[in-house]
């Protein structure tokens, strides 16, 4: 993957505008993802969001059935600046089929046009919609989990903090190399600052487009690692890529969860780089990580019975 990146000689995102970064990302991700796995059904719908209409893509897994299926709110990565409903389509299809569930992926608002907390507010609204319209969606409101990768993992973790005292909090959080500390001071930012895909300079560019000012860095809604306590949040699966600037903060978040009494499954892929779960065409570990997340989710939720992820 690193060789492909060097051969492409793509300009770093931080060297251009957000619009240019989005175009470059949209041109590049189809070469990384594999064939689209068929699901039982695929549809889109629009709901009223806090900042205007929100588009959702709804995937019904082949084994999900027509009613009372478990559901997963998937929040795509992309540094809160790039990414869309197509960029993480492969992952959503895998999750829907492996977990026999309904996956809902929202096209939440992106920065810098919509800075923090716009994305958080959108995600809260979508989770509320899933609960309120569970019957229409054919899902069980008592069996909704959340998931995301990178910035999406950040949003999923924050959403679980918001929802931990709700009537039906998420049953699990599946976090793929999540961003949990916007201070960007962990040692992995030095170890993998350049040459491993996502660079420290690019990550700073993403963050600075997302936050309103430096005071947001310490806000737990931006940096969930900084929250006073994680007690009571949903059981967590945390996937770590070994050569990733976010590795240390992902490890730190898993430890905080464990210290605060939250069930955690921590899995490491030592030879992988940031974003590997979106590289199914080239990285068999991508599907393996999704399967491990589904297996963890099944373990957290007794209603899944003894079924196993493939």
Automatic annotation (TrEMBL):
Output the InterPro entries linked to this UniProt entry. Answer: AB_hydrolase_3, AB_hydrolase_fold, GDXG_lipolytic_enzyme, Lipase_GDXG_HIS_AS, Lipase_GDXG_put_SER_AS
| GO MF annotation terms | hydrolase activity
Q: What's the family?
A: Belongs to the 'GDXG' lipolytic enzyme family.
List the keywords (alphabetical): Hydrolase
Q: What is the official name of this protein in its record?
A: Acetyl esterase
Which residues constitute the catalytic centre? 150
SUPFAM superfamilies hit by this protein: alpha/beta-Hydrolases
Q: Does the keyword Transmembrane helix apply?
A: no
* Residues of the Alpha/beta hydrolase fold-3 domain: 72-277
Pfam families in the cross-refs: Abhydrolase_3
Chain spans, region Disordered = 1-22
UniProt cross-references to PROSITE patterns, sorted A to Z: LIPASE_GDXG_HIS, LIPASE_GDXG_SER
């Amino acid at each position: 993957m690193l060789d492909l990146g060097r051969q492409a000689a793509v300009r770093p995102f931080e060297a251009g505008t957000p619009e240019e970064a989005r175009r470059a990302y949209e041109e590049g991700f189809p070469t990384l993802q594999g064939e689209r796995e068929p699901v039982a059904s695929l549809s889109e719908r629009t709901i009223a969001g806090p900042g205007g209409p929100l588009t959702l893509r709804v995937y019904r897994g082949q084994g999900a059935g027509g009613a009372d299926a478990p559901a997963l709110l998937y929040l795509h990565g992309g540094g809160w600046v790039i990414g869309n409903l197509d960029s993480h389509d492969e992952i959503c299809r895998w999750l829907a089929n492996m977990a026999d569930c309904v996956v809902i992926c929202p096209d939440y608002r992106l920065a810098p046009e919509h800075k923090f907390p716009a994305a958080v507010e959108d995600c809260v609204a979508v989770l509320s919609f899933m609960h309120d319209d569970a019957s229409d969606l054919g899902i069980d409101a008592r069996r909704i989990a959340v998931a995301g990768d990178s910035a999406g993992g950040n949003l999923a973790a924050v959403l679980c903090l918001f929802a931990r005292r709700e009537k039906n909090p998420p049953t699990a959080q599946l976090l793929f190399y999540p961003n949990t500390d916007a201070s960007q001071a962990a040692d992995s930012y030095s170890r993998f600052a350049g040459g491993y895909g996502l660079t420290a300079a690019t990550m700073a560019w993403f963050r600075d487009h997302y936050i309103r000012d430096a005071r947001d860095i310490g806000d737990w809604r931006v940096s969930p690692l900084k929250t006073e306590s994680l007690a009571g949040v949903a059981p967590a699966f945390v996937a770590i890529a070994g050569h990733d600037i976010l590795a240390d903060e992902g490890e730190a978040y898993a430890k905080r969860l464990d210290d605060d009494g939250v069930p955690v499954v921590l899995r490491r892929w030592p030879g992988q780089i940031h974003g590997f779960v979106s590289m199914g065409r080239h990285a068999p570990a991508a599907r393996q990580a999704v399967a491990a997340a589904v297996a963890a989710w099944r373990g957290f939720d007794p209603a899944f019975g003894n079924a196993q992820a493939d």
